[in-house]
Amino acid sequence: MSIPTQPPLNAEADQIPISADFDEHVPYVASSKDLPELTVGAILLGIVLGLVFALSSV
Q1: HSE (CB half, 13 Å, CA atoms) of 56?
Q2: CB 49 within 8 A of CB 43
Q3: How far apart are CA 23 and CA 19, in angstroms?
Q4: Helix (H) or strand (E) holding 43
Q5: CA–CA separation, 7 vs 11, rounded Å?
Q6: Backbone φ and ψ of 46, nearest 5°
Q7: Cα separation of 51 and 12, whole Å?
Q8: What CA–CA distance (Å, rounded) separates 53 from 56?
Q9: Which residues of 3-32 are buried (b: 16+ CB within 10 A; e: fewer)?
Q10: Residues 13-41: what's their mean pLDDT?
Q11: Sequence-separated (6 or more) residues with CB below 8 Å from residue 35
Q12: Which end of the chain is more exposed for a tag (fewer CB within 10 A), N or C?
């Protein structure tokens, strides 16, 4: 018993570009940008979420 498969709905489904079709990858964040890993906002968010999950298990 085989599972029936449907053909693509339109001819464009076979024309999806692959990475070889692009000239050069442009990253969203430049490699020269120095992003902080630990910020005050991240610490506060961690504290708030820690309290929420701790109180939910009581």
Answers
A1: 6
A2: no
A3: 9
A4: helix 40-56
A5: 10
A6: -65, -40
A7: 51
A8: 5
A9: eeeeeeeeeeeeeeeeeeeeeeeeeeeeee
A10: 79
A11: 29
A12: N
43 or 13, which is more confident: 43
Q: Scan for tokens 């029936």, then name that residue.
A: 4
Mean pLDDT on 14-38: 78
How is residue 5 written in tokens?
């498969």
Tokens at residue 24, please?
Answer: 């050069």
What is this structure's pTM? 0.47
Nearest partner of 41 among 49, 53, 33, judged by Cα: 49
- On whether the CB atoms of residues 46 and 52 are closer than 8 A, the answer is no
| 31: its two tokens | 């490699």
